[in-house]
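Supplementary Text 2. Reproducibility record for the structural model of the 116-residue chain.

All settings were left at their defaults, and a single model was retained for analysis rather than an ensemble. We include the record here because the model underlies the residue-level annotations in Supplementary Table 4.
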Amino acid sequence: VQLQASGGGLVQAGGYLRLSCAASGITFSISAIGWYRQAPGKQRELVAVISSGGTTTYADSVKGRFTISRDNAKRTVYLQMNDLKPEDTAIYYCNTPWGARTNAYWGQGTQVTVSS
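Retained model, structure tokens:
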């Protein structure tokens, strides 16, 4: 199983980025996928999750600014991040909920840095 996150970078506050998560080794169309992030000195936290049917859930801190979506044909999940804030600075990972609970499948993640 591989869940490869990409698309991070350095952006100014108020800017935007779109992250991509390419999945292999899972039955993608029936898998929920989540975006998680870990800031320096903090625990990893759930940012957003999308079910196989397209139902989305967001952390309160990103509601109204981030949008998670999926393209089953491309086996890819996206995280559109708008109005970025310095507190969004973290390494962003994607994973299945099961992988997150069992500490499996974590890839290298992608660094997002928001400057003030």
